[in-house]
């Protein structure tokens, strides 16, 4: 159980690490978190959060990084508050421009969705239609630009997941898409790190959603990226 102050500090630490990909020190947190706490107090709070499993201390840098548990806490807070974020005019205009002239063909819509969501999220996106073997996959090359994917073995594992996705789709649909239901809006299920059942992507985050398409078709969307992803932005983009 974390205190209200620790909640605010953890929120800052997650956002800062997502933004910079650099471990966060107590001095930086004291300076930028607007919590009006001393560096020593911040350090004590970070020590407590580390003992509770929310932070990992990287001794080479002196800073700390969020764990999967921290990301889960952060995402649960976002989903519980039913976020409705303003993506800004730039994102909205890009989405509108991408959809101009798109027909009512579900496959064409899915192709555009994969492309625009991949471009805006800078993550891997795979779209499909339930009971259909056609998939559109975009963003693998761009994903490798993230610092998390500079190791050869991680590139190989992710590429392997990408290539074998068709064979995994029935499992994904049965385990995840069917549990989402079709409530108002677009429900999003988020699997962080080891929560994923796929051994190739135990250090990544997977977002799953399904949505209505013309002709009584049901579209499915899978977004894969580093656990250090912009959860707020990506959930909002999918919705």
Low-confidence stretches: 180-184
Biggest sheet features: 5 strands, antiparallel
Strand content: 15-25%
Shape: elongated
C-alpha Rg, in Å?
Answer: 19 Å
| SSE series | HHHEEHHHEEHHHEEEH
Secondary-structure blueprint:
Elements: H1 4-20, H2 26-32, H3 39-51, E1 55-57, E2 64-66, H4 68-80, H5 89-99, H6 106-121, E3 124-129, E4 135-138, H7 140-143, H8 152-163, H9 165-180, E5 188-192, E6 204-213, E7 217-226, H10 231-238
Antiparallel strand pairs: 1-2, 3-4, 3-7, 5-6, 6-7
Features:
239 residues; alpha+beta
Question: In words, what does this structure look like?
Answer:
This protein is α+β, with helices and mostly antiparallel strands and about 240 residues long. The chain contains ten helices and seven strands. The strands form two sheets. It has a five-stranded antiparallel β-sheet with strand order 4-3-7-6-5, sandwiched between helices. A two-stranded antiparallel ribbon has the order 1-2. A hairpin with a 3-residue loop joins strand 6 and strand 7. Helix 2 crosses helix 3 and helix 5 runs antiparallel to helix 6. It is elongated. About 0% of the residues have low confidence.
Précis, in short:
The chain is an alpha+beta fold and 239 residues long. It has 10 helices and 7 strands. It has helices spanning 4-20, 26-32, 39-51, 68-80, 89-99, 106-121, 140-143, 152-163, 165-180, 231-238; strands at 55-57, 64-66, 124-129, 135-138, 188-192, 204-213, 217-226.
């Amino acid at each position: 159980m974390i205190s209200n102050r620790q909640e605010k500090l953890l929120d800052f630490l997650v956002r800062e690490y997502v933004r910079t990909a650099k471990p966060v020190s107590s001095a930086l947190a004291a300076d930028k978190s607007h919590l009006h706490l001393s560096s020593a107090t911040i350090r004590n709070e970070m020590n407590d959060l580390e003992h509770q499993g929310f932070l990992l201390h990287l001794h080479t840098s002196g800073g700390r990084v969020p764990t999967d548990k921290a990301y889960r806490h952060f995402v649960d807070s976002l989903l519980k508050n039913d976020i409705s974020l303003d993506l800004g005019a730039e994102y909205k205009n890009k989405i509108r421009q991408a959809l101009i002239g798109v027909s009512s063909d579900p496959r064409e819509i899915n192709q555009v969705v994969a492309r625009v969501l991949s471009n805006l999220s800078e993550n891997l996106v795979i779209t499909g239609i339930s009971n259909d073997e056609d998939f559109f996959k975009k963003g693998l090359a761009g994903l490798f630009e993230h610092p998390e994917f500079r190791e050869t073995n991680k590139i190989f594992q992710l590429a392997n997941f990408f290539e074998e996705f068709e064979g995994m789709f029935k499992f994904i649909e049965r385990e995840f898409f069917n549990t989402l239901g079709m409530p108002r809006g677009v429900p999003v299920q988020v699997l962080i790190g080891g929560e994923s059942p796929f051994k190739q992507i135990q250090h990544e985050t997977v977002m799953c959603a399904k949505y209505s398409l013309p002709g009584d078709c049901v579209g499915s969307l899978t977004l894969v990226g580093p656990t250090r992803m912009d959860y707020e932005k990506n959930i909002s983009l999918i919705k």
